[in-house]
Amino acid sequence: MGADKYILRVEDIHKAYGDREVLKGVSFNVRKGETKVFIGPSGTGKSTLLRCINQLTLPDQGRVFLNDEEVTNSGTRINYFRQKIGMVFQNFYLFDHLTAVRNVEVALLKVKKMDAAAAREKALEELRRVGMEDWADHYPAELSGGQAQRVSIARALAMDPDVILFDEPTSALDPELTREVLEVMKNLARQGMTMLVVTHEMGFALSVANEVLFMEHGKVVERGTPAQLLNDPAFTRTKNFIGKFRDYNEE
Ligand code: ADP
Ligand code: MG
């Protein structure tokens, strides 16, 4: 079997800060259109793992491939891979001095070198996808956290990524705002976007994840379908962790 059936391959990623080993050999493969959800206690290396995938953090060991091209050690081509591997953070990181549509189009102008009219059209199209077209001319300070997060998703989508990494995209949001962001993410999953999502939203995992990976102390301890992992975990450690989120709803 060729490895070419996978859009993303993550092989044996290790990362230490000083003498503290934060990732101790994490491997997994992702098929096009899959959504994988990563859960686990805080400090377990989930953010570091996502950052190693697009080389915002350089792993000490291990390799990452996108469409069979090596992302690790890719030199200046990393800029190309960062377009193809979108990232959405807990705290949005929008430019405060730019309107929503300008936030989405800035990379289209500067990185993709699109002309102004085409960039504007594309930015508005992506805002429409996340239900934010009516807010195109508003500044981040005028948006709710949920709206700001939807703009940051539109910004990732504008680069036509092969995969989007979401690092606790709703952890800074109230429940009702969380819901609107999860709705957008579910729609993306259903439209066939490939996504890796670090989240504690077990309802989201149950409704769209192909696989859930439970991480602890820098390793994937257990992985399986959402139903297996959330309802019938093999390990006590997984069970104990999931028990804290027992009030989730399947949507
Ligand atoms: P998680 O996202 O699962 O909460 P992180 O990947 O953010 O975990 O962090 C894993 C561990 O690595 C934590 O102990 C954290 O303090 C440490 N860490 C993360 N980034 C750095 C850094 N830049 N320098 C030193 N330690 C870091
Ligand atoms: Mg984190």
Short description:
The chain is of the alpha/beta class and about 250 residues long. The chain has helices at about 45-55, 80-85, 100-110, 115-130, 145-155, 175-190, 200-210, 225-230, 235-245, and strands spanning about 5-15, 20-30, 35-40, 60-65, 70, 85-90, 165, 195-200, 210-215, 220-225.
Describe the structure.
36% of the residues lie in helices and 25% in strands. It is of the alpha/beta class and 251 residues long. A six-stranded mixed β-sheet has the order 6-7-8-3-9-10, with helices on both faces. Strand 1 and strand 2 (20-31) form a beta hairpin. Helix 4 (116-129) packs across helix 5 (145-157) and helix 5 packs parallel to helix 6. The longest helix has 16 residues, at 175-190. The radius of gyration is 18 Å and the shape is globular. It starts with 5 loop residues before the first strand and ends in an 8-residue tail after the last helix. Bound molecules: adenosine-5'-diphosphate and magnesium ion (MG). Adenosine-5'-diphosphate is lined by residues 17, 22, 42-48.
Q: Quick check: average pLDDT?
A: 95
The percent of residues in helical segments reads 25-40%
Count of helix runs:
9
- The rough form would be described as globular
Strand order of the largest sheet: 6-7-8-3-9-10
Ligand roster: adenosine-5'-diphosphate, magnesium ion
Contiguous uncertain segments of 5+ residues: none
Main beta sheet? 6 strands, mixed
Give a count of the beta strands, DSSP E runs of length 2 or more. Answer: 10
* Cα separation of the termini: 36 Å
Query: What string, H for helix and E for strand, traces the elements in order?
Result: EEEHEEHEHHHEHEHEEHH
Beta-strand proportion: 15-25%
Radius of gyration: 18 Å
